[in-house]
Structure formats: C-alpha cells, structure tokens
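quick one before i forget lol
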Amino acid sequence: MNYEDKKIVGIIASNVEPSIALNVIGHLAISIGKYSNNEIMGQPIIMDKSGINHLGISQFPFIITKVKAGKLKIAIEMAKSNPNLLVADYPKDILDTRTDEELVNSIQSKENDKLEYMGAIIYGDTKEVDEITGKFQLWRID
C-alpha cells in the first residue's frame, strides 16, 4: 500500500480553545487507532541502533484542520453516510460529563441534531476523505 492511498484528517471546530483542541484530538486518535483495521499502522516496533524500541506510528498522513461548527457537523454527517470511512466524533457532552456512564446517558438522551460537536477524525481512502475535508483550513494557533 502506498503512503498516499489513505488519509487521516482531524477536524476541530474553530471556536474550540487550543488546550481543549489537543484533548479532543488525543481522545479521537485513540478511538480511530482502536477501531481501525491493522493497515493504519506502519512498522509496529522500530528498534534504534542502541537496541531501544520505539512504537511505530500511522503509515498514512494525519493532518489537523479547523472549520466552523456548522461545517464540522455537516462533515461528520457526510463521512458517516459513507460506509468506506471510519469516523470518530467528539460531542461537547464529553466535556460536560465526568464518567463514561454519564457520557453514555447524556448522548443517549439526545437526538443527533441536538449534539454539538467539537471535533472529529475521518480515516479512509484519500479521495473520499478529500471530498469532505479538502477545502478545510489547516489548524493552527492564531
């Protein structure tokens, strides 16, 4: 498989503070890593010349972008409608709850149109990911 065949794009809502954005991406990256197939990872363990092991990383590009909250929600909906894409999303409920049980109860009590998203990660074929995220601005601290 070629490096450019697949892509991982993190999307942060533009109104999310940088300290929270890092937390959002961290949680989403764990989720994508857990639920993706094994092809996402490159060499599992890389041993340096000294014999020290280092965990490998994704073999595909991983970029972080930002968009307005409304566009983020549309991107999530578009990505979830494509069965070829893996999507992890981060509803604001995650910040408003303390435990997993509270989070589950909070999300289960709401209709999807009532969820406010702070971020998402989309993984899949580059062309399909770019159709959704290709015009998004790269995320940076202003």
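fyi The longest strand covers residues 117-125.
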